[in-house]
Amino acid sequence: MSDNILSQIKSYKLREVAEAKAECDLSGMEQRAREADTVRPFTEALQAASRTGYGLIAEIKKASPSKGLIRADFDPALLAKAYEEGGATCLSVLTDGPSFQGAPEYLVEARAAVSLPVLRKDFLFDPYQVVESRAMGADCILIIMAAVTDAEAAALEETATTWGMDVLIEVHDAEELERAALLKSPLIGINNRDLRSFVTDLDVTRRLAKLVPEDRLIVSESGMSTSDDLADMAMNGARIFLIGEALMRKADVAAATREILRPATSAMGGM
Ligand SMILES: O=P(O)(O)OC[C@@H](O)[C@@H](O)c1c[nH]c2ccccc12
């Protein structure tokens, strides 16, 4: 598996980090992070939303390695506003350039346009990238267990905590879930997509959700496109969802967001 996409991504990320450090060293980046806008509570917002209905992390995603270009008409600020208007709890913004056609500026523009907490969706290996995330304004970072060692994960989490950011820990199988339990973050993302093969199967959440300890919050990630999918995942223990492509492909993103969340709102809205 040495030529899988994750190891390719890791090698160009480490190159990117070395270049970034040459341009702005750690103490320079820490200075930028101190000047960033105050952290918005990411996990807390999802916890509150999922108590009465669904929590939605809506993703700003222009392209992906498996699907190519997803949305040509792409304005991060407008998309962020549409998601907020449609009822999203939080945003996720892809900042990886080579594989997802993302950019740090997209996160900056999206976050400035709304009051929602924002996840930086990228592949992090080095604590420097966590500080850089805060300097961009990110409120939460992602740790992909399939991509990092236990020691790397712990270092990333510790740096995030130091900067007041939340952490979404992403897992795809029972072994990664066990490793996630060594970390402190309550937010566990079950990725329905296998990042090595790109096969997406909602059965991953159905199988793994039952193994997640009671005191953690489950986020089902990837491959959901209808409100029936959300109801299915909710029945299996996940009331928080990370959705990108299905919403990004719709002309009216606010309406599509409202629509995918609709049954939850009407079923739980205290009619
Ligand atoms: O577009 P989808 O199928 O709704 O998936 C969103 C999100 O879960 C997916 O983009 C994702 C999940 N984990 C990742 C890690 C890196 C990059 C991207 C991802």
TrEMBL record:
Pathway the protein takes part in: Amino-acid biosynthesis; L-tryptophan biosynthesis; L-tryptophan from chorismate: step 4/5
Assigned keywords, A-Z: Amino-acid biosynthesis, Aromatic amino acid biosynthesis, Decarboxylase, Lyase, Tryptophan biosynthesis
Catalysis: reaction(s): 1-(2-carboxyphenylamino)-1-deoxy-D-ribulose 5-phosphate + H(+) = (1S,2R)-1-C-(indol-3-yl)glycerol 3-phosphate + CO2 + H2O
EC number from the UniProt entry: 4.1.1.48
Highest taxon in the source lineage: Bacteria
InterPro entries: Aldolase_TIM, Indole-3-glycerol_P_synth, Indole-3-glycerol_P_synth_dom, Indole-3-GlycerolPSynthase_CS, RibuloseP-bd_barrel
Enzyme class: lyase
Example GO biological process: L-tryptophan biosynthetic process
Signal peptide: none
Lyase found in the keyword field: yes
GO MF, one example: phosphoribosylanthranilate isomerase activity
Recorded family membership: Belongs to the TrpC family.
PANTHER family tied to this protein: INDOLE-3-GLYCEROL-PHOSPHATE SYNTHASE, TRYPTOPHAN BIOSYNTHESIS PROTEIN
Protein name as annotated: Indole-3-glycerol phosphate synthase
